Amino acid sequence: MEIQDYFNFLAADDIRIKGSRIGIESVLYEYIYRAKTPEEIAQQFETITLEDVYATILYYLHNKEAVTAYLADWLEFCRQQREKQKNNPSPARQKFRKLKAESAVRAESDESAIAVW
Q: Which backbone phi and psi does 106 adopt, to 5 degrees?
């Protein structure tokens, strides 16, 4: 079996582990940035095997320059998405923020009332 046989190359920016919806970036992020062992990663992602995790790491090691660029693009995309979410929160997020602010005002008011007693 060739190492590429473990993956579905859906697009230049979308490489998934065959038989799952998990992208190689998810496995490699845990391995590179969170220093998790292959066994820990396999436990975390129930739809892939330990063999799949090792194949992903091996693919990375054999294609380090290209995969490093792939990961950098993915991390930048994630950063942009977080920024968009921050600047354009969903109605549910807006309501949560409003409720949280109202709760803080009530708690402050309650503390003031207790201090007066």
A: -65, -45
Task: Name 8's bridge partners.
Answer: 16
pLDDT tens column, 6-25: 999 999 999 999 999 999 99
Q: How many CA atoms lie within 13 A of 100 on its CB side?
A: 6
Question: pTM for the complete prediction?
Answer: 0.75
Rounded to a whole number of angstroms, the distance between the first and last alpha carbons of the chain is: 77
Contact in structure between 13 and 73 (CB atoms under 8 Å): yes
Specify whether the CB–CB gap between 24 and 13 falls below 8 A.
no
- Identify any residues that bridge with 15 across adjacent strands, giving them in sequence order: 9
